Amino acid sequence: MPRYELALILKQMQRPETAAVLRRTVETLMERGALVRDLENLGERQLPYRMTKHNQRHSRGTYFLVDFYAAPSMLAGLLDHLHRDVDVVRPTVLKKDAQSSIWTSLSFLEDVSPLI
Amino acid sequence: KTDNIPLLGLYFKFSDIVQLQFIAKSQTASAEVLVNMENPYREPQKGCVLCDVTVDFKNIQLLSQFISPHTGRIYGRHITGLCGRKQKEVSKAIKKAQSMGFMSVTHKNPQFMKDPNVCGIKHLD
Predict the structure, then answer these.
(1) Mean pLDDT for chain B?
(2) pLDDT tens track of chain A, all 116 residues?
(3) Which of A90, B44, B98, B103 could form a disulfide with A9 if both were Cys (CB 3.0 to 4.6 A apart)?
(4) Superfamily the domain A3-115 falls into
């Protein structure tokens, strides 16, 4: 299955609320048959420009990076779901390149099917 | 016309005669003199600044070194000095980071203003 990367920018919230948003995002991913591999926190910082989403103007946000394996057919539905989430400012899904991967030793996972 | 030297009724150029003499000498010399080897004075190929560096959209500090601090415009190849492949990678990564909300479009992040100047450009600051 191809590898994808979800760059998630969340609204500036308290820690338990951020945890709740992350939890439901990962649960959504798993419900749609994705295998979540890695979740990185890039920190809370000032956004490079003010973003408007769900009738709110955001100037600060928390950046997260979710690595996952998924079928290409579920990406459209996933992005639609993320855009509708009120706490998410900007979701972006990218394909992960093999060259830029840090975990080159774990490439044997490429041909592992997800656990249902 | 002054170059032509009459010899045996034929006109040769001076350079031809020098070459004929050289060929005659080398054939008589031993085989040790002429050795097939690669150029000993050859210098290692110089790569561009990012030859061994992976370019990522997350690494905005690296990408910010290739944009203007005043306008945020991406510098061209004649300024950055990067090879074709790396220039394209940097350009694509900057556009990706800008659209994903990682990097600003109109200016350079003030935190990165003090970074060393990689591009060959001098600002009149």
Answers:
(1) 84
(2) 778 999 999 999 999 999 999 999 999 999 999 999 989 999 999 999 999 999 999 999 999 999 999 999 999 999 999 999 999 999 999 998 765 444 333 444 455 556 55
(3) A90
(4) Ribosomal protein S6/Translation elongation factor EF1B (3.30.70.60)
CB contact under 8 A, B103 and A48: yes
Rounded distance between C-alpha atoms, residue B86 and residue B62, angstroms? 12
Cα gap B82→B76, rounded to integer Å: 9
Whether this model's ipTM surpasses 0.90 comes out as: no
Query: Would you say the C-alpha torsion B23, B27, B29, B31 has a positive or negative sign?
Result: positive
Asked if the Cβ–Cβ distance from A63 to B56 is below 8 Å, we say no
Q: Which domains does chain B have, with CATH numbers?
A: 60-112 (4.10.640)
Where do the structural domains in chain A lie, given as residue ranges?
3-115
Sign of the torsion formed by the C-alpha atoms of B29, B33, B39 and B41: negative
User: For testing the chain A interface, which of B85, B88, B95, B100 should be mutated: the one with the most A CBs within 10 Å?
Assistant: B100
Nearest Cα of chain A lies from the Cα of B117 at a distance, in angstroms, of 22
